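Researcher: Please generate the 3D structure of the following complex. Treat every line as part of one assembly.
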Amino acid sequence: MNSLVEKLISAIITAILIIFFGFPVGFVIWTSFRDYGAILAGQFFGFHYSLTNYFNVLFNPGYAFTKGLINSIIVTIATTGLVLLVSFPAAYALARFRIGGGSLSSYIFSIRLLPPIIFAVPLLVLLYMLQLHDTLLGLTIVYLAFNIPLAVFLLRSFIMEIPIEIEEAAIVDGCSKFRVMLYVTLPLSKPGLIATSILTFIMVWAEYLFALLFTLKNAVTINVVASQFVTQHTIRYGEIAAAVTIGMLPTVVFLTLIQKYLVKGLTLGAVRGA
Amino acid sequence: MMSEKKKINRREAIGAIAGAIGGLAAGAAIGWFAKPPEVIERPGATVTETKSVTTTAISPTTVTVPTTTTVTKTVTEAVTPKITTITVNWFPGPESDAVTPIIEWWNKYMTPKTGVKVELVLFGRAEHFEKVASLLLAKSPEPDIVWMAYTVGRVYEHLEPLDEWFANPEFYPYSLEHYVDAALDAFRVEGKLYGIPTDMNTSLLIYRKDLIPEPPKTLDEMIEVARKFTKKYNPDSPTEYGFAIQGKNIWFNSYFWIDLYVSQGGPPFSPGKEVEFVESLDTPLAIKTLEAYVNMYKEGLSPPDSIDYEYAETNAALAAGKVAMALQWNAALGELRDPKKAPLVYDKIGCGPVPGRMENGKYIPGRSEIHVHGPGMNKYSKKKEAAFKWLAFMTTFKFQMEYLRNGGFTGSNAILYNPAARKIRPEIVEMADIYRDGWAMTTHAQLVPLHDVLTRNINSALVGTKTPEEALKDAKKEMLELLKKS
Amino acid sequence: MTSREGIVNWIFITPVMIILLGVTIFPLLFAYYMSAHDMTMVNFWHPNFVGLENYLEIITTTDFWSSLRFSLFFMVIVTTIETLLGLFMAVYFDRPLKGKRFLISFILIPLGIAPALFGIMMKLMLNEFVGIVPFILRHLGVTFHFFKDFTSSLITLIWVDVIQWTPFIFIVLYAAIQALPREPIEAAIVDGASKWQLFRYITLPMLKRTLIIVLIFRMMDALKTFDTIYVMTGGGPGISTTTLSIYIFKLALIRGDFGLAAAATILFLYLATVAISFALKRMRREGII
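Model: Done. Output below.
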């Protein structure tokens, strides 16, 4: 009796959530298949569907979509990997060693507080001086710097949830700090690593301002290419929708795959007598 | 147990690190290889004797350039010139659509002859000018040609002055006389020319000619017609609203109200006359015009969401058959008369001048502002000679005709009164007079902020947070301050 | 702790510090520099020193304070909604559900779309004449204009922000819940705790640390909201939905005055830092952190 009502409620809640979050996404996908005229005239029924938007997006000269897609994938994966690589030790240090807490944190917070526009022009000048403008390397380095703060703090809070006794046991066993971090804490931080990698991935993928300003034609990312459909007089909704839809695919793939590691109960029974 | 964990962990760790390094390496490699090869520009092989040429003064404000040019170049290389690739930045949309086939043609046929290859680079409209400004501020050598249009007043310091290039017969054997005065003036700062007008734009009254046989001639008439076609006041109206006000708080939306105001007798907001215009903003005429504009919105003659309308939404309203009239950019005609893009109304769209006024029993037609778009040359470019060849080409009749054919529209008398051109784009016939009677919009360095202030206040008046009088007084105050600063 | 240990500790942080400082210190210093000069697009490479004039001008501009106020207002509303919703969803999804992985990926998609592009699509969707949402609403008998005035625009902006950013909070809390040790939870269930008691007295306290971090970051990001609002309302009607970021952006790139924009940014930074450290001290004193 209880479970039937529960099941019903849970179904309703799930449905509401799907509609709430999925409707806009569904709308974008749907728009990508519609004719320009149909979009502009607001004709919802009738058969004005075609793949022209996708065609325009993929093959239009001057818009370099495939290049943008590949660039986005490269930059996102590289940034995510490097962010994890660099932030995890830092998070570990912040969590366990109590160093650099005060000044590092405040510096990180100030960076995060400032609207990125204030960094835009100086960074652009910097990139030009280093000949890194319009390169994937330059873009990656910038993204690294702006995503490390969140990663460090998130990982730190996840690490702090891991009972320190496990690590102390390893130290007693003769492991160096580094080995402890690598072989004990790292596996136990899987959920934290997953969450951080998801957020970093997503936020680099969706980054717009810096990609727009720091690239010209070689390192354009998918958002830059999509923005080229926002033209002076028209917004080519269909093409933008198509570009965005294609852009969703790597994200969905990555997200679905990585959730495999989002498992429960890693610390199960690890600490006796808790 | 521990060693098993170790194995897995090591593998995972190595995998993650390898993945990261691999990604980074791949990115770096691609970035490295994708960099365009450094092209060294080598002058074509020419030898010239001293020439004595007189060039026509383009406008009283130009500095006439010395008339003798001595250029001697020694033949250093083989006959076939090395190909230099220049990056040309254009405006995305109809303009870039119009220029792309021309670029393709050029690359195919003109590149061997001129040694210049053109690569097109586009930025999204939304941030186009900000991106151009950032690039120029950072002294980027690319793109060689930048589309800076009306921001010329702000970024001219980073643009190459073009007068000397155009006056040099070695580089430029044609003439710039055929441009409409207002068009070239729009690209002059302190007397020096910094760009070439390739697109001329104005605003018109667009209306449903199947419902409204003759466009309204005065402002009062327009409001009457709007009322007639608003369902709220006329349940038999075929359209829901009579007019679509472009009310979004984006800086250029002030142009429409300014057109109305100037057509009602206000002073034009032209180069050199900025202060006069701003001073007049709190006169009874200005206030009355704004009141009429605001009342159209308040009385529901314009859709409630029109407070957030700009170009796209206004077109949508017209294309969906929901509104009967609007003040809109002339580029809309291309969209609204295309059966594919506006299937419901494509054959029902008429265009006319902004409504004028009756003065002392005489009818004075309205006048629209004219503004031009176009590119200039990047001062930090490393390929200026090659880039200028392209610039020169843009001033030729061939370019302009092709551009017109592909949907662009250049402000040149050669085009406006050319019968072939008129056949391609019949609306030129409709608009030639509008262009002739129009007034040039200012090109002041503070153009955008000035309009931003005015639009913001108009927007406040539309919403009702300020009365029209307050809005105009505030606008005048702020705009005068801006003008004083520069 | 021997000094050698101290040095080894620092190695953990070094890469982060190098990257962070390397990339951000120059722009930050440059921002200070800009704020003390009259620096516009025209005289960018030869600015004039004006000391504190820019700051004075910003402090006396009502638009600055209005945009600051709106940013705070907006931030508080969206963060509250998103945190509650995200928390709810994280707890709700902590059960076996069919196709959960795909569902979660789907929910996270709005986060992966560039906010500017998402805003554009939302504008289309809510367009009075050609948007599908008003169409559906009309058929349900409801007329709601999404951009008519400040209130409706605000609701629309909040709604779009919630769709985009709740997944941010959700995924972090969801992962955190997965990482929780099972024993306390199981012990409580054995002791007969109800779902609500379980949540309030066991789960929530254990989530506290992560919750606070994600809350702080979301608050900081919400203060900086730019893309979606700029694209959807341009900061209007009037300047009613102009956030601080939009204000600074307009100062810098539309008005072309970098000095003023930098001064506004630094001023905001100081105000925010003061507020945050004050809040942090209070929270530390009350043992929340």
